[in-house]
Amino acid sequence: MIISTDPLATALDGGLEEGAEAGADSELRAFSIDVSGHGMRLDRALVQRVPEFSRSYLQQLVEAGAVRLNGQPARRSAQRVQAGDACEVELRPTPQSQAFIPEPMALSVLHEDEHLLVLHKPAGLVVHPAPGNWCGTLLNGLLARDARCALLPRAGIVHRLDKDTSGLMVVARERQTMEALVRLIAAREVERQYVALAHRPWAGPPQREVEAAIGRDPANRLRMAVVDPQRHPGKPAGTQFQLLQQAAHGCLVRASLRTGRTHQIRVHMAHIGHPLVADTLYGGAPAAGMARQALHADRLAFTHPATGAHMEFHAHPPADLLQALAAWGLRYNPPARATPRPFGQSPGDAGA
Fold first, then answer.
1. High-pLDDT (> 90) share of the chain, %
2. What is the crossing angle of helices 42-49 and 55-63, to 10°?
3. In sequence order, which ranges of the chain are alpha helices (DSSP H)?
4. What are phi and psi of 313, to 5 degrees?
5. Collapsed DSSP state (helix, strand, coil) of residue 341
6. Does the structure show a pLDDT above 60 at 230?
7. Residues 43, 146, 162, 164: which is the catalytic one?
8. By the 8 A CB rule, do 137 and 100 touch?
């Protein structure tokens, strides 16, 4: 088939807004500090009496003015309490505890059956809730679209795209399919291809295999980097690059994933001297009108876990990337359609 174009667990270690109003979901607990808590730090005493919540969360309640001692707001988590002190704690929902809720949103679905769906994620949409993005994610949209997603880990999401990367994703709709898709990805039997616009004209052969481990950048923990596994933690990562077109200012490249590490294409492209246009985290700069990293997942192919059918999907790049290509005198051509292979045959078995 060819077509073109346990998530309810509560996390309690994050941000409360100072001065947040008490709501219907709040719970007030009142107790007295007993002898065993005399002289203890307030936050430690709270952990003793409200053990189902983390110390970090309870510290945030103190900072937000939600903890009172003897009728007065507690000053700080480190203050000492005394036996007999009257304590009140207003337990409020955190952004994390409300992260896995349905939020209706428009999703571009290319294919859907009872087992899975394939969608085209726009740039700017976060895939999964995380610090700084506890709502408005693809996961929230999936929960609103299909109640069955609430029964699956991560709402059926089996792989991710970065927030500012656009393109194709497959999502499971039931557990057996989810487990099968995870196995297919681990066995490198899900073909994921991207187009990338990069700085500087391509140097060297038109095809290049990059095998370089990726881990946290030792000099900047907010980004990833190619690392020496003998010296720094990292995982093997492989990407195949193919030059599609050249320009005076850069190049259009096709990238095929062999593994799926965080920021893999972006890191490997920067490593070989071609950071992606507008990818400021990895040495790129805005150019040709692009304000986000110039990366788009335009091809996805796999064997359907339930039916055995060859599934192949193509999605043209969005307008901003097409306009950037035109600005540099380049043109996007869709990838060639693959010949369907028999059920159970891996990509490596299909021949050249």
1. 74
2. 120
3. 42-49, 55-63, 138-145, 175-186, 264-271, 319-327
4. -130, 140
5. coil
6. yes
7. 162
8. no
